[in-house]
Amino acid sequence: MTIQTLVQHLRLEPHPEGGYYRETYRSAEILPQSALPDGFDGDRHFCTAIYFLITENNFSALHRIRSDETWHFYSGEALEVIEIDTAGTLIITHVGKEINAGEVFQYTVKAGHWFGSRVKKGGEYSLVGCTVSPGFDFKDFEMAQREDLFQNYPQHAAVIREMTR
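RESULT FIELD:
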């Protein structure tokens, strides 16, 4: 499969953090704000899901959301998920098909962690799915500011430089 074939066949659109995406599921059921943890502004769907395609020489910039996000591998080369947890620990996970090389088919980034992703070095693209619960809403999305991350996590300056715009 080519990148262009995937974009056309899956009807993908550019994503604000980098790459391409299309929402494939949004549950009909709603969680009222009163049932959600602090920080949510309004009701949310139980769950949402997207296709997400990232290509070589591009990356999904560091950002965070208020929900857990589970990544599912579909096609291409492994996706390198880079995150900084709430304690400031750098975590790098390869979501891919080579389980004998330490890659995993699924991985969940916890709510509130800074995270981004890129195709594993040498790969052309990575096609994954992302499932978010409580469901994704752009009101819960925060793009990282490079200078703020430098101040809070100076030990990760090289990764922050690579994974922010």
